[in-house]
Amino acid sequence: MKLVGIERVDSYERAVVKEGMARLLKPLGGMEAFVQPGEKVLLKPNMLSAKTPDAAVTTHPEVLRAAIELVQQAGGLPLVGDSPGVGSQKRVAEKTGLLQVIEESGAEIADFSEPVEVAGKGTFKRFALARPYLEADRVINLPKLKTHEMMTMTCAVKNLFGAVVGAGKAGWHLKAGADRDLFARMLVELYLLRKPDLNIVDAVAAMEGDGPGSGDPRHVGLLLAGENAVAVDVVAAEIAGIPKKLLYIQRAAASLGVDGADRSEIETTGLPLEEACVPGFRLPHISDVQFGLPQFLKNRLRHYLTSRPCLVEERCRLCGVCKDACPPHAIDIKEGRLSFDYHACIRCFCCRELCPEGALDVVEGTLVKIIKKFK
Fold first, then answer.
1. What DSSP state is assigned to residue 156?
2. Contacts of 12 (CB under 8 A, 6+ apart)
3. What residues form DSSP beta bridges with 44?
4. What residues pair up with 337 in beta bridges, in sequence order?
5. What digits encode the pLDDT tens for the residues 176-209?
6. What pLDDT shows up at residue 291?
7. PROSITE patterns, per this entry (predicted)?
8. I need a labelling partner for 255 at 20 to 30 A (CA). Which of 91, 142, 186, 356 fits?
């Protein structure tokens, strides 16, 4: 059985988070079960972009602080690293409050700029991952529970995509991002290359709606933990009320026979699951009805079958973040406004995910609107 702990933590007050995390890990053997004295321990938070902690975009600094202190008490040497979607690691760490915690605690920042090529073991043959992620003695994954417009939910497995260095993420979106199931398979195969030793989920304040960067904070008041990242994701999705058919990562894990995807093999401890479940957790409104169609029809009808990004002109500052982040270079700035090439657009929504002003919305395809109307 895969064990997943659930603990009620109602605020980010320092003592509350530290005590809650200690209670959370106790049934799993405590931090000492995962960290030995003298080991270099990489803590991998979500550092998507330079947003303040109240935006619920990134792992909260007090969750990182509690994890660092528990690692230190177990005798480990904590390093903190991630590769943000936009901006330098130091800039994002500073804005999110994570840098202050790192400096105050005596931990070190791990430089995620150097990629190391690793042979894949499945559909995808090569991955280039940050050296500290591969070389650390232990990896502790610190994801944020959020909705995700492409994967429906981002939590433990998806957070490991941050081990891909910088521009490498755009390459993966180009290679696999036009198909959600294929992209989920890539994420699972990446996870299998270096499984975290422990996953601790920040769900004190989660994100609902159009996450992972443009959604709304939602107080959930929980921390989750488990050794198996897939099992942690399954329980997190159950708490958020996300139907299995929308969990692309879980589906990919199940198809590959990966441990943790079978709910019957997962046991929860701590707060009873029925007390942890969140009513009315809003999911992304991105719609896509093209799955199951022949490829030639997908290509011809994609504009009508899928949602696509569009500009909210009054919010746009023409900063160019979306243009630079777009994997297929489908966004340009022409005559003082954004221009979209929807034939090139792969609907990965990286532009919405990374826009610092929330200036990108979604317009649904014509057939999607008709289907919803008759539903």
1. H
2. 53, 60, 62, 63, 204, 205
3. 141
4. 334
5. 987 899 999 999 999 999 999 999 999 999 999 9
6. 44
7. 4FE4S_FER_1 (PS00198), 4FE4S_FER_2 (PS51379)
8. 142
Nearest to 160 by CA among 176, 143, 177: 143
Residue 66: HSE in the Cβ half-sphere, 13 Å Cα cutoff:
25
CA count, 13 A, side-chain hemisphere, 256? 24
- Please identify which residue in the block is written with the tokens 């919010």: 315
Q: Is the pLDDT of residue 88 over 60?
A: yes
Position 344, amino acid:
A
User: Which residues, including other chains, have CB under 8 Å from residue 222's CB and lie 6 or more apart?
Assistant: 6, 7, 8, 9, 201, 203, 204, 239, 271, 276
pTM of the model: 0.89
Q: Give the pair of three-digit tokens for residue 33.
A: 């079960």
pLDDT number for residue 366: 60
- Distance (Å, rounded) from C-alpha 225 to C-alpha 7? 9
Supply 254's token pair.
Answer: 């199940």
Other beta carbons within 10 angstroms of residue 351's beta carbon come to 24
